[in-house]
Amino acid sequence: MEQNNNLEIISSDWCYYLVAFLDVLGQKDTFAKFSKIQSIEEIDDKIKSDISENLYYLEQLRKNLENYFNDYTREEPSSVIINESYKDKFDQMRKAEIYFQFFSDSVIAFVPLEFKSFYSVTVNGAWGLLGASCAAILGSLALNHSIRGGVEICWGTRLKSGEIYGPALNMAYCLESVVAKYPRIVVGDGVWNYLNSLSNQIQQHREQTLIDIDLCKRMADRCLNFISKDRDSLLILDYLGKGFLELNKNSQEFFKLYDLSKKFIHDSLIIWQQKKDRKIEPKYQYLNDYFENRAIIVEKARKIPKLRGR
Q1: Does the pLDDT of residue 10 top 60, yes or no?
Q2: For position 55, what pLDDT does the model report?
Q3: How deeply is 80 buried, as exposed, middle or buried, from its count of CB atoms within 10 A (0-12, 13-18, 19+)?
Q4: Are residue 104 and residue 183 in the same domain, yes or no?
Q5: Which tens digits make up the pLDDT trace of 245-285?
């Protein structure tokens, strides 16, 4: 068979990726209301106002998400005292890499799971991705919108544009669109198995050092603390769980977002119960149940800074 010389061979690094696919719910329902509009002249001020509210939210969400991901990759001085001869290596091991891209009302974040100088850089990125995703779902609820998502690990590559491509993205998308069902972020078995292998100090590369393995274990344990089993036994990112609360117990912004989210969920549940909408009501009932189940530990964490301030 004659080779087609017009085909350009893409030289890419194929590896495993941790991918999060997050999607804003309710956008399709909003646009469905305007499906009968036939011409631009029919778009009145009321329609523009409704759409503008969505546009404002999406712009704000994108800004917040960018801040969340950047917060987890920002390099800050360490409080750990270390010998000057090891400082460069130590600083390299503390780095994190997270890539993200926006597509309409969806965001895709990913971390390449490949060994370079230190494998801890990869796990730092995984911790940042999971933490930022927790922040994203709570921050979205505080803006009166809900998010559904999926996080999984599989192989893939990157296009020249920098976009993720391959089964890794597809599996994360399927978790979001098919498995999750409720406003939550479902975690795939691949993520769980990967983090547990790190927690069990299994060497990820023949050149990985014992120090690197130990640091990976510590970060993997922190990642595992973000995850819990939901009422249907699916693994989810527990953004009101002990792991994420421990990270935010001294943050007044966290509790502000929590209060705004709780009010939005409560008010929305009443509205959809009155409308007897059997499609949307269960989603807010799920959220309401989740917040009620976590209320005790959240309020306990809220009191900690006040006690310390006495």
Answers
A1: no
A2: 78
A3: exposed
A4: yes
A5: 999 988 999 999 999 999 999 999 999 999 999 889 999 99
Last residue of a domain, one of 239, 255, 290: 239
The answer to the question of residue 9 being in a domain is: no
Q: Which residue has the tokens 């050149």?
A: 207
Range of the domain at 77: 15-31+46-239
Q: How many domains does the chain have?
A: 2
- Chosen domain end from 216, 239, 262: 239
